[in-house]
Amino acid sequence: MEVKFIERDENSIRFTLGKVSPAFANALRRTMIGEVETMAIENVIILENNSVMYDEILAHRLGLIPLSGDTEGYVSPDECDCKSELGCSKCRVSFTLEAEATDDTITVYSGDLKSEDSDVKPIVDKIPIVKLAPGQKLKLEAYARLGRGIEHAKWQPVSACAYKYLPLVSVNVKKCDVCGECVKFCPRNVFAVEGSRLIIRNEMNCTLCTDCIRHCPMKPSPITIDWDDTTFLFYVESTGSMPVEEIVREAATILGKKSTLLSKQIKALEK
Ligand SMILES: [Zn+2]
């Protein structure tokens, strides 16, 4: 297996995963989406709500707010020995929210949620929850717990997680007359004309659409589009709840543990 990092910004990462099968690449993708644990609000106790929004919708909106922070030290409620419906300090983080509009209409934001653990809180303060007109009031308690994307999408640590085959673009420079049609029609700016030559500027941007070949006046075209079906170009974007490398690392660890378990069970069967 070969991993090569291509680029990273605050919340996303691009890397290639080489010498693996499509099944393995897909297993890694699915593990990142569905198996890496994050915190999200699961139970809400509404003490007062005379806003226009129903309690259920309000609870749903609260659940979808990504929570950041260090969740190490917390256990998921299934593994916790408290067996309590709303959890204990080891398996949940509680929030309170109290807002009231007196003279003007106000917007209640994610930042108005007060967390009992300063390490676990909404990733941004400006996610609107509900608007309150004068005289309206909202008072609630919310309980967040660890969960996985396979239970509900609110626990997904990634907002995007996809891969494609590594594109292999080549140009037979001896045959190409540098008419520039491919430069014009490529939607991903893969090609460029530099001096009197057609160059491949951005091979990894290619989506294998082959528009360049279709619009090339030369038949057969000097451009060849191919892909490496053992190398995958991954793009992973975090919701902000976890650093993106940690999501990849954690998914790999989970896959590793599952493989070990499977191999142990097979060995047990052989005996
Ligand atoms: Zn507990």
β-strand amount: 35-45%
Structural class based on helices, strands and sheet pairing: alpha+beta
Count of discrete alpha- or pi-helical segments spanning 4 or more residues: 5
Distance between the termini: 31 Å
Question: What is the radius of gyration?
Answer: 25 Å
- Oligomeric state of the chains in view: single chain
Helix-residue proportion: 10-25%
Mean of residue pLDDT values? 93
Shape: flat
Uncertain runs are: none
Strands of the largest sheet, in order across it?
Answer: 1-2-14-11
Major sheet summary line = 4 strands, antiparallel
Identify the bound ligands: zinc ion
Task: Write down how many β-strands occur, each being a DSSP E stretch of 2 or more residues.
Answer: 14
Order of helices and strands: EEHEHEEEEEEEEHEEHEH
3D architecture notes:
This protein is 22% helix and 36% strand. The chain has 271 residues and is an alpha+beta fold. The strands form five sheets. It has a four-stranded antiparallel sheet. A hairpin with a 2-residue loop joins strand 12 and strand 13. The longest helix has 27 residues. The mean pLDDT is 93. Zinc ion binds next to loops.
Structure characteristics:
single chain; 271 residues; alpha+beta; four-stranded antiparallel beta sheet; 5 helices
Summarize the structure.
The chain has 271 residues and is an alpha+beta fold. Helix content is 22%, strand content 36%.
Secondary structure layout:
Elements: E1 2-8, E2 12-18, H1 22-34, E3 38-49, H2 55-63, E4 67-68, E5 93-100, E6 106-109, E7 114-115, E8 121-122, E9 128-132, E10 137-147, E11 158-171, H3 181-185, E12 191-194, E13 197-200, H4 211-215, E14 223-238, H5 244-270
Zinc ion binds at residues 80, 82, 87-88, 90-91.
